[in-house]
Design brief:
The protein is α+β, with helices and mostly antiparallel strands and 287 residues long. It folds into 2 domains: 129 residues, Aminopeptidase (3-Layer(aba) Sandwich); 108 residues, Gcn5-related N-acetyltransferase (GNAT) (Aminopeptidase). It is built from 8 helices and 14 strands. Strands 1, 2, 3, 4, 5, 6, 7, 8, 9, 10, 11, 12, 13 and 14 form a 14-stranded mixed sheet that branches. α3 links the parallel β5 and β6. The two termini are 23 Å apart.
Length: 287
């Protein structure tokens, strides 16, 4: 039987929407109303069998230097057994050719997590979720060191440097993402000593606020700037009428979790595994 793995074309969006809407094996955290914009923005690999889509994987390629699977679907057990592995390996090879690190997946869909070890993936971390309800802040400790202000386009190189100093490479934001974030998030920079020392990204949704990113350069950590950014974010959300605030961080980032707990955040729900495809020394997927 003829099988083909390829990158989906732009004009195949209706077929992709139809496939993902009916796939019996589906792993995603994308809300249905957000599926179309994600498909337009990402890259989707298809495994075709006899001219029909048997499996598909939507990969986010713009935000981080490591490509991340956002949605995976299989049409039947044969696709699960025969097409899924070659499909993900093809996406990883494309990422490698583009200079990206090994393919990443964050999620807890049992059917997919059960397949990933045999497909060359290993768990490298977990994502912890936090939330807080209500108003009120702890007593401030000392004088504010940093000045907070809205970010501007000219801040982007410095904000990118902060981001890359504060996080491991797989979590780095790209320059393109930060430039886009100026329009899509409430983007605040913290300046100290004449330089950008940290930044935050906030977004709002019906009934809740999301602290989407908080970064402080290691040279400025431990001096209260992270706390200033958290306070500022909470006051922004309260001004929007939102008292429920959500965020997430890496399970091994104990410093950030201690900061969030000090500001009233509590662990919420189970952690999610972070899976990454292994590559052999020559760079090929390790399957």
């Amino acid at each position: 039987m003829e099988r083909l793995i390829r990158l989906a074309a732009d004009d195949e969006l209706p077929a992709l929407l139809a496939f993902f809407s009916r796939a019996p094996w589906l792993a995603t955290d994308i809300r249905p109303r957000d599926l179309e914009p994600h498909l337009r923005a990402g890259a989707c690999w298809l495994a075709e069998r006899a001219g029909r889509i048997a499996a598909a994987a939507l990969v986010e390629t713009q935000r981080h230097p490591v490509w991340q699977m956002q949605m995976v679907g299989c049409a039947d057990l044969e696709a699960l057994d025969e097409e899924l592995g070659p499909l993900l390996a093809a996406a990883d090879r494309a990422g490698q050719a583009a200079g990206a690190g090994p393919l990443l997946y964050i999620g807890d869909e049992p059917w997919l997590n059960g397949e990933l070890p045999a497909l060359g993936f290993a768990t490298i971390n977990r994502i912890a979720f936090y939330e807080r309800e209500g108003r009120g802040l702890p007593e401030e400790r000392g004088l504010a060191l940093a000045t907070l202000r809205p970010a501007a386009a000219e801040d982007m190189p410095a904000a990118l440097a902060v981001d890359h100093a504060a996080f491991d490479p797989i979590w780095w934001n790209s320059a393109a993402f930060l430039a886009q974030a100026l329009d899509e998030f409430r983007f605040v920079v913290a300046t100290a000593g004449g330089e950008v020392a940290g930044y935050s990204l906030c977004s709002t949704y019906p009934g809740e606020g999301h602290l989407a990113r908080l970064a402080v350069h290691p040279a400025w950590q431990g001096r209260g700037i992270g706390g200033q950014l958290v306070r500022d974010a909470l006051r922004f959300f309260w001004g929007c009428g939102l008292t429920r605030v959500l965020l997430n961080t890496q399970q091994d980032n104990e410093r950030s979790q201690a900061l969030y707990r000090r500001y009233g955040f509590r662990a919420s729900g189970p952690t999610l595994p972070v899976w990454q495809m292994r590559r052999d020394p020559e760079g090929a997927p390790g399957i």
